[in-house]
Specification:
heterodimer; A: 162 residues; alpha+beta; five-stranded antiparallel sheet; four-stranded antiparallel sheet; 30% helix; elongated; B: 562 residues; alpha/beta; Rossmann fold; six-stranded parallel sheet; binds thiamine diphosphate; binds magnesium ion
Chain lengths: 162, 562
């Protein structure tokens, strides 16, 4: 069966131990987590977890059901297959030798990202977008030399009907 | 009213109707024990903490209520893990209270500190660390509600010392309120209508029921469904007693050591109705060869059970009792015709399978057959005893040769298969049902895992009976070695064993022994009808095997018969 990538948006009680319940569920049952983002919502008692995973359809069904079974999970949305917006942010530290600087800045411009820190021999670039955009800029910067990178993982929300 | 945490806890327990706690004291629960000493809640002092959970498990199953345990932090808590895991796998409602080091020491590697909530997370339905005395009552309310509702299971409440010593206002909490927990009891009627159609069109239906039927108290509704639709019925190990074994529609147990006719029926049926089951691998054998010609109905309260292991034609999420009684109502409106006549060919086929390979064993002169002991036990108790088991061959022979007509009479560690379960579970069952005859069918290996509980039984004057099928081996493992490892009996011979008769006596109980077939009945009579705790040591055939057997990884229809 085909493996598919799914984005789950999960509302949970904002209390200690909830994240380990979710992580434990995934490791204990052999599901994989590609990325995971957690933060409080407007209700301080509730957090939103955005979790990206891959699996075949029965596995994805199990993941959704198993998440729902956890007592601290309030709501689970499988966003994949619905209308949603997704964003990820990355901070990329690139080697910036004098003869590469112009090229780096051009790329930054084209991708509408920002240079947020400049050092003697590096730039730190902030890029926001969907995964595709981040992967694209990474592939362009790679030949120039990436020193370090930090990615947030995907966050996503349903698109409400217009 | 301001009360101490320990007092609040006991008040909250009384509100839940708790009258018995299984436990073992220690430093951080000493305040709770101090309150227990002047409370009218009975405390049963087990001799090892896993047994507190096993006993609470037996108490819950026999008595149909939540079992309760109380142990100390650190080693007390870690000892409970085996018991909790067994109750978790079998979905038994148990609430476990563990003491914890004071909140200000948590995380400091304090004396007898372990991360109990972390360790037990994967084997509990839910667990709590109570951080403030004022949260205690509400947490206890939630714990009991979670343990006993939906798909039941163990819930653990970890109580730091300062929480049980601290004071808070106490007011009885009303209802547990849980934002997101809302088990589905009522089935979707459209889905049920689909099931009705499937039943009407089936020529060769089979019902396969499990522990869910016992847990939801649906034995009556299941029996009604089977009889109304003239559907041959099998159960898993956990479902034994959910359908009367004396009914002509009874197929016997399904699975690795199921009957020939039960397993063959699933291979041939065109409709399989799984009710309160989870299609465990010990039931299905090779999964792609399980019920290959059947449309499958799956009724269960836990949505994760459905389509976890097998594809399903008609999934129904709901409580077994509620769902089956709705289904029966719907069926009452249908014209089903003369089903006995319509199903004649199917019944004939099943009768043929029954005659080809009935459950049987060979009697041998001068040697006690273990199956014979269980058969006699069944006869002498008229099938009315509560049977607990250990794990291994003894468990399978108990399941095969004791015939259960009523639910809650067969208490076994099904999912975890945990040796040492039977004796403490029997203690719990006996406390829940003081007038019942409670018998632990044991193996010589398993009984030694928790033999110390003889002290608990004797101290509490519990007339629990232990029937050891003493084959001098870790028999079930030896059987696999005989069949699949050229009889290389690696570490399964138990010829160094204690004298169980003397051991019983050392615990202040009665010890009896039978070595010849003609002694079986008199020893059973003497032991079973005594008012004391009794161990009966039956020295049985050493290398007997449990048949039929589906080798691991084979289809359930590929059985070894002898
Ligand atoms: C705690 C635990 N350890 C190991 C096993 C593996 N095991 C399953 S059956 C069995 C043999 C049990 O021997 P005995 O109690 O004498 O029962 P018999 O099969 O001989 O009736 C063993 C070791 C287990 N189920 N539980
Ligand atoms: Mg043995």
């Amino acid at each position: 069966m085909m493996e598919e990538k799914h984005i789950f948006s999960i509302l949970v009680d904002n209390e200690p131990g909830v994240l380990s319940r979710i992580a434990g569920l995934f490791s204990g049952r052999g599901f994989n987590i590609e990325s995971l983002c957690v933060a409080e919502t407007t209700d301080p008692e509730v957090s939103r977890i955005t979790l990206v995973t891959t699996g075949n359809p029965p596995m994805i069904e199990q993941i959704e059901k198993q998440l729902n079974k956890l007592i601290n999970v309030i709501k689970v949305h499988d966003l994949t297959g619905t209308e949603f917006v997704q964003r990820e942010m990355a901070l990329i530290k690139v080697v910036a030798k004098p003869d590469h600087r112009a090229e780096i800045l051009r790329t930054v411009d084209i991708f509408r990202c920002k240079v947020v820190d400049v050092g003697r021999d590096h730039y730190t670039i902030e890029v926001t977008g969907d995964e595709g955009k981040i992967n694209a800029i990474l592939s362009l910067l790679k030949p120039i030399g990436i020193k370090e990178i930090a990615r947030t993982g995907i966050i996503a929300l349903f698109r409400d009907p217009k | 009213m301001k009360l101490k945490g320990a007092q609040i806890m006991l008040k909250a327990l009384k509100e839940e109707g708790v009258d018995t706690i299984f436990g073992y004291p220690g430093g951080v629960v000493i305040d709770i024990y101090d309150e227990l000493a002047i409370s009218d809640i009975r405390h049963v002092l087990v001799r090892q903490e896993a047994c507190a959970v096993h006993a609470a498990d037996g108490y819950a199953r026999a008595g149909g209520r939540v079992g309760v345990c109380l142990v100390t932090s650190g080693p007390g808590a870690t000892n409970t893990v085996t018991g909790i895991a067994s109750s978790y796998m079998d979905s038994i409602p148990v609430v476990i209270f563990t003491g914890q080091v004071p909140t200000h020491l948590i995380g400091n590697d304090a004396f007898q500190e372990v991360d109990t909530v972390g360790i037990t997370r994967p084997v509990t339905k839910h667990n709590y660390l109570v951080k403030r005395t004022e949260d205690l009552a509400g947490t206890i309310k939630e714990a009991f509600y979670l343990a006993s509702s939906g798909r039941p299971g163990p819930v653990l409440v970890d109580i730091p010392k300062d929480v049980s010593v601290g004071v808070a206002d106490y007011k009885p909490s009303k209802k547990a309120k849980l934002k997101s927990y809302n088990p589905t009891y009522n089935p979707n009627v459209k889905q049920l209508q689909k099931v009705v159609e499937l039943i009407k069109n089936a020529k060769k239906p089979v019902i396969f029921a499990g522990g869910g039927v016992i847990l939801s108290g649906a034995a009556k509704e299941l029996t009604e469904l089977a009889r109304k639709t003239q559907t041959p019925t099998t159960t898993s190990l956990m479902g034994l007693g959910g359908f009367p074994a004396t009914d002509p529609l009874w197929l016997g147990m399904i699975g690795m050591h199921g009957t020939y006719r039960a397993n063959m029926s699933t291979g041939e049926c065109d409709l399989l109705m799984g009710i309160g089951v989870r299609f465990d691998d010990r039931v299905t054998g090779r999964i792609d060869a399980f019920a290959p010609h059947a449309k499958i109905v799956h009724i269960d309260i836990d949505p994760t059970s459905i389509r976890k292991n097998i594809p399903v034609t008609a999934p129904v999420v709901g409580d077994c009792k509620t769902t089956l009684s709705k289904l029966n109502q719907l069926l009452n409106k249908e014209k089903l015709g003369d089903l006995k006549k319509k199903r004649k060919k199917w019944f004939d086929q099943i009768a043929k399978w029954k005659n080809t390979a009935p459950l049987a064993y060979e009697q041998k002169k001068g040697v006690i057959k273990p199956q014979f002991v269980v058969e006699k036990l069944y006869e002498l108790t008229k099938g009315e005893a509560i049977i607990t088991t250990e794990v291994g061959q003894n468990q399978m022979w108990a399941a095969q040769y004791y015939h259960f007509d009523k639910p809650n009479h067969f208490i076994t560690s099904g999912g975890l298969g945990c040796m040492g379960f039977g004796l403490p579970a029997a203690i719990g069952a006996q406390l829940a049902c003081p007038d019942a005859l409670v018998v632990d069918v044991a193996g010589d290996g398993s009984i030694q895992m928790n033999i110390q509980e003889m002290a608990t039984a004797a101290q509490c004057n519990l007339p629990v009976k232990v029937v050891i099928l003493n084959n001098g081996y870790l028999g079930m493992v030896r059987q696999w070695q005989q069949l699949f490892f050229d009889k290389r009996y690696a570490e399964t011979c138990l010829d160094f064993a204690p004298d169980f008769v003397k051991l019983a006596e050392a615990y202040g109980a009665v010890g009896l022994r039978a070595t010849k077939p003609e002694e079986v009945e008199p020893i059973l009579k003497k032991g079973l009808f005594s008012k004391e705790t009794v161990i009966m040591d039956f020295q049985v055939e050493k290398e007997e095997c449990v048949y039929p057997m589906v080798p691991a990884g084979a289809a359930v229809t590929e059985m070894l018969l002898t």
